[in-house]
Amino acid sequence: MSKPYYDAADLRKFGKITEWSEELGTKFFDYYGKVFEEGALTAREKSLIALAVAHTEQCPYCIDAYTKDTLQRGITKEQMMEAIHVGAAIKSGATLVHGVQMMNKVNKLDG
Amino acid sequence: MATKSLQKLGSDLAQSNKQIEILSNGIFKTGELPTFKDKISETSQFPIKAKKLEILQINVGYMCNQVCDHCHVDAGPDRKEIMTRDTMRQCLEVIKNSGAHTLDLTGGAPEMNPDFRWFVEEASKVGITDFIVRSNLTIIRANKKYYDLPEFFKKHNVHVVSSMPHWTRGKTDKQRGDGVFDKSIKALQELNAVGYGMPGSDLKLDLVYNPSGAFLPGDQVAMEKDFKKALMDDFGIEFHNLFAITNLPIARFLDYLIASENYEDYMYSLVEAYNPAAVENVMCTNTLSISWDGYLFDCDFNQMLELPVNSKSRHISEFNEELLEGRNIVISQHCYGCTAGAGSSCQGVVA
């Protein structure tokens, strides 16, 4: 039971998911690759979005992958941290905006 | 940041055979990753053969005013290997009689060789018009005797290629030493002032970007755009092109990879990014590297690993272009650094 659930080396094996479901896996990776191509957004902008989302999703593999990807694009650590704050602000905002629902309910029940 | 060379520190990794041993054992010995030879054999690209010689890259000495973290030369102020005027004369004989059209001077800081200017002037006399000097920029500000280098470069229409790891002070100084960023900016402004790097100018000024850590360089075009915008906005600096170069796992960079436990991941990154199209144009196919003491190598990296050319012509004194052309390039696992992604060479991407 001492083995951790996550192993950083497993990220390298990501491509292997195709072996047990070739068509779906291949379609996913094609889609994935296409999403990150330069488009209406630059590849750099997409990388920063991915870094922020990696944190809100709390995916350790994604965090490893996009920390490296943003570094490769010359993105500074200040920019990386600000991107994560954007994710964090949306996460906390999403929690707090539900406070309105609580307030509505209180006003209805205990008006 | 480093202050002494690995050689001065007496490190094991100052020995080239120790580096080759590391690159040949471990994950490559167990077969976890394919050796470079096996990888290029998959696409029938082994052996890599030298084509017609175009560029002579001469390392005029390992002495440098900086001690950069990633340096593949393990250069620094404590390195005493310096090319003599006699060896330079032998190089000039070769330049006169060979088909090479470009003379690429590197080091160390090539300008620190006491005969650097003499060599450029003499090479100019024998008809070389395409000079590259790999300048670290700070040398121009290091001492009064170097202040007029921009004018000297201009006089001989030297193509200046300079390292600039980032457009921010923090990332630059971390890799190259405190104060390097400010001095580099000043030097770039002085080069701009004499006409270097200006739009449409024949005085070529290119910058070299190489990553500050255990990751590969990003897209060269995108990086160039970012560098141009930041250097113009912040300092009014112009330059022509940015070359994105991959750090090869040798010397000080190898030492760093091992110490930071990034070696295996980095080798995986290089192998995963392997691009057979880059193999076609690796720089060893048209460049010959000459060491401070006149020996011939396929590239500056092989020079540092002391892997001599696979030819009977091994020294500048016995240079034979016919023998060298078509020779098999000497390879090891560090070669993955030149074939990752869009490829990497002293002139930037190759694929």
From TrEMBL, chain A:
SUPFAM superfamilies, per database record: AhpD-like
Molecular function in Gene Ontology: 4-carboxymuconolactone decarboxylase activity; peroxiredoxin activity
Span of domain Carboxymuconolactone decarboxylase-like: 23-101
Known EC number: 4.1.1.44
A Pfam family the protein falls into: CMD
Organism domain of life: Bacteria
Keywords carried by this UniProt record: Lyase
Enzyme class: lyase
Name of the protein this chain belongs to: Carboxymuconolactone decarboxylase
Automatic annotation (TrEMBL), chain B:
InterPro entries, per database record: Aldolase_TIM, ArsS-like_C, rSAM, rSAM_ArsS-like, rSAM_sf
GO molecular function, one term: catalytic activity
Domain Arsenosugar biosynthesis radical SAM protein ArsS-like C-terminal, chain residue ranges per copy: 216-348
Cofactor field: [4Fe-4S] cluster
Transmembrane listed as a keyword: no
A Pfam family hit: Radical_SAM
Annotated keywords: Iron, Iron-sulfur, Metal-binding, S-adenosyl-L-methionine
PANTHER family named in the record: FE-S OXIDOREDUCTASE (PTHR43728:SF1), SLR0304 PROTEIN (PTHR43728)
Protein name: Radical SAM/Cys-rich domain-containing protein
Annotated source species: Winogradskyella thalassocola
